[in-house]
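so my prof wants the structure for this chain in the tokens format not the other one, which i didnt know existed until like an hour ago. anyway here's the sequence
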Amino acid sequence: MSPVLPLPVTSADRETCTATDVLRLVGEKWTVLILAVLRDGGPSGFNRLDRTVEGLSRRILTRTLRALEADGLVSRTVTGSHVEYAITDLGASLLPLILAVGEWAVEHAPRMAAARAAYHSGSLQR
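here's what i got, hopefully its the right format
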């Protein structure tokens, strides 16, 4: 298997890595949720999105939608005074990969919890 990055890994390698950029995006607290809401609920206006996601401030919703639009994962359509957001094909193609990570997390959560407990109890040799 060939290495993902040349070793040693430099700061420049990390900063220019395309995967790092995508991981930062999907690692944002609200990104995946907004994409899933738009996929499952269809195109939505800002106010509908605001009502759909509890605990998400309007400022953060605006910032998240702008970032997703800038990366081509969400489209923004203005019709008169109405603005509608929709997941793009690019955004929809990313969701199954993220959902696979979520499924992995659910499947392996008990093993990870057990490992953490063992680590914090001091039963693992360091």
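also thought this was worth mentioning. The chain has one domain: 11-121.
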